[in-house]
């Protein structure tokens, strides 16, 4: 009997497998969409493209039709889900990677000529001998001078694969030079400024959240603590976000224990919590965070978590209101979908996302509406209190659904800029003037060891203003009747631009912040609390 059973056993297994496969097939067919995929079955979109390919009266670029169809599909989703062509995907990755492959110069197009405005230290350009003030006439065989060449064209010509060499024709002191430059990796810092405002207060400005932001932040904090940092101003104004993990890691440096920083959740993405996991570098010192209407996404994660835990005082204006999380999904042709996969929520459960049910245009125009209806200027018109209430550990009431509302409101300066000054800013004459003033007066700045000492000794209102008035007359702009208050604002901007040539962005912000109303409010607040 045992032998007979052993003989029939393989046949029995085969019958069971066949029955199981049949039942599985029937169950799959009973599902609403027949399971997750349908091998061999085309969609209506694919069928339509194939019909066009085979039957349309004229020749047609199917790839272009597919791209347009994808764009239209993405337009039906939320405002932050977008289609990225290969070139846009590359720029997006470079922007947040903390580096790109190039030669290491900054440039500005002034009167049809590309002028080098800064040469990065230890870069290929410095090693090749390029200098501030050099004018780029040609890049290899491409003529730039006198052609109104766009910045994008210049960037594409200069950037390229590491190890490759380009030949620049340079005009310097009326002499033409030919200089070969070999491309290399060029760092792009996301922390643009850090310095001590006074003996206790430090200032850090983050431009975006890239792959190197947390490391840059920690290095800056260690240096500031050595200089006596006990109170901090963290400036997130204009920071449109970036990598969420970088914002979470920085929040961890301010929050103690295993506090919740943020959680995400979506229809197809289960709830996921992100908590503190290490002792922080600044868990107890006084902290203020500066925000405005262009602070978005990762900036709102960071400022929202610190506000929910009563860890920081948020100063400025209501943030953008972007509480959606995107992931990038590569496509076979090198393009990608940047697709929203979940929403993020602050520790108290606040959703920061603004409504977008009225369409993308209305959604994006909301920022301009804040300028038009007074929200950016007056605290009384800058309240979002029509949603669910959330209570912080100290008992403060917060609201969700429209960005992070600051604890201390500071509106935009209501002082009007004259049309004459605006014209000089927009046509590039102001930048042109300061740049050439620096080239002609570099020795003036040599004795100064810091931006602050330079600011204390240099008075652009006397040294530069009359030259600027004369320069403006070439553009038929009369500045002789400019109000004194506006003259002071423009002079401060001149001084800050000059400082940037020697001390980079830290020097620029160190001088600009001397008259910045939001920074001054933060300094006063730290004194009184």
Describe this protein with a few key phrases.
529 residues, 18 helices
Describe, in plain words, how this protein is organized in 3D.
The protein is α+β, with helices and mostly antiparallel strands and 529 residues long. The chain is 40% helix and 21% strand. The protein is built from 18 helices and 21 strands. It has helices spanning 2-30, 44-55, 62-75, 86-97, 124-128, 151-158, 213-226, 244-252, 298-308, 360-372, 419-426, 429-440, 442-445, 451-457, 460-463, 465-473, 484-512, 517-528, and strands spanning 82-84, 99-102, 105-110, 113-119, 135-139, 142-143, 165-172, 175-182, 184-187, 191-196, 201-206, 231-235, 260-266, 269-275, 286-291, 313-316, 324-330, 336-345, 389-391, 397-399, 408-409. The strands form 5 sheets. Strands 3, 4, 5, 6, 7 and 8 form a 6-stranded antiparallel beta sheet that branches. A 6-stranded mixed beta sheet has the order 10-11-12-15-16-21, with helices on both faces. Strands 1, 13, 14, 17 and 18 form a 5-stranded antiparallel beta sheet that branches. Strand 13 (260-266) and strand 14 form a beta hairpin.
């Amino acid at each position: 009997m045992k032998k007979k059973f052993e003989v029939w056993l393989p046949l029995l297994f085969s019958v069971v497998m066949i029955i199981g496969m049949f039942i599985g097939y029937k169950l799959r067919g009973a599902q609403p969409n027949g399971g997750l995929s349908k091998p061999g079955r085309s969609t209506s979109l694919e069928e339509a493209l194939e019909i066009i390919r085979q039957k349309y009266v004229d020749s047609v670029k199917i790839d272009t039709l597919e791209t347009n169809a994808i764009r239209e599909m993405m337009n039906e989703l939320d405002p932050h889900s977008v289609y990225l062509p290969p070139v846009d995907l590359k720029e997006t990755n470079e922007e947040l990677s903390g580096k790109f492959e190039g030669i290491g110069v900054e440039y500005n197009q002034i009167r049809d000529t590309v002028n080098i405005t800064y040469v990065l230290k230890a870069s290929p350009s410095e090693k090749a001998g390029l200098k501030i003030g050099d004018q780029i006439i040609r890049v290899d065989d491409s003529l730039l001078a006198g052609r109104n060449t766009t910045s994008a064209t210049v960037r594409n010509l200069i950037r390229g694969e590491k190890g490759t060499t380009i030949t620049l024709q340079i005009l310097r002191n009326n002499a033409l030079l030919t200089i070969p430059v070999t491309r290399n990796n060029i760092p792009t810092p996301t922390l643009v400024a850090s310095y001590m405002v006074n003996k206790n207060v430090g200032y850090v400005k983050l431009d975006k959240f890239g792959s190197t932001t947390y490391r840059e932040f920690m290095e800056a904090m260690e240096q500031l603590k050595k200089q006596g940092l006990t109170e901090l101003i963290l400036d997130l104004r204009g920071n449109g976000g970036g990598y969420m993990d970088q914002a979470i890691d920085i929040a961890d440096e301010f929050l103690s224990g295993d506090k919740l920083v943020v959680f995400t959740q979506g229809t197809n993405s289960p709830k996921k919590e992100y908590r503190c996991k290490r002792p922080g570098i600044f868990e107890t010192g006084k902290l203020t965070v500066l925000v405005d209407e262009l602070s978005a996404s990762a900036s709102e994660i960071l400022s929202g978590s610190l506000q929910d835990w009563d860890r920081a005082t948020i100063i400025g204006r209501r943030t953008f209101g972007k509480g959606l999380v995107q992931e990038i999904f590569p496509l076979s042709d090198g393009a990608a979908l940047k697709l929203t996969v979940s929403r993020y929520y602050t520790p108290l459960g606040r959703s920061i996302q603004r409504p977008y049910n009225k369409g993308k245009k209305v959604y994006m125009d909301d920022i301009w509406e804040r300028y038009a209806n007074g929200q950016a200027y007056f605290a009384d018109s800058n309240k979002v209190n029509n949603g669910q209430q959330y209570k912080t550990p100290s008992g403060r009431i917060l609201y969700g659904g429209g960005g992070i509302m600051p604890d201390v409101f500071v509106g935009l300066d209501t002082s009007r800029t004259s049309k004459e000054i605006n014209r000089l800013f927009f046509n590039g004459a102001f930048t042109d003037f300061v740049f050439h003033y620096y080239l002609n007066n570099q020795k003036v700045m040599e004795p100064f060891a810091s931006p602050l000492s330079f600011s204390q000794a240099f008075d652009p209102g006397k040294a530069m203003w009359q030259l600027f008035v004369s320069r403006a007359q070439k553009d038929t702009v009369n500045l002789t009747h400019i109000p004194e208050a506006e003259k002071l604002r423009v002079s401060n901007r001149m001084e800050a631009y000059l400082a940037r040539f020697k001390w980079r962005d830290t020097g620029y912000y160190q001088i600009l912040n001397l008259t910045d109303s939001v920074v001054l409010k933060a300094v006063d607040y730290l004194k009184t609390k």
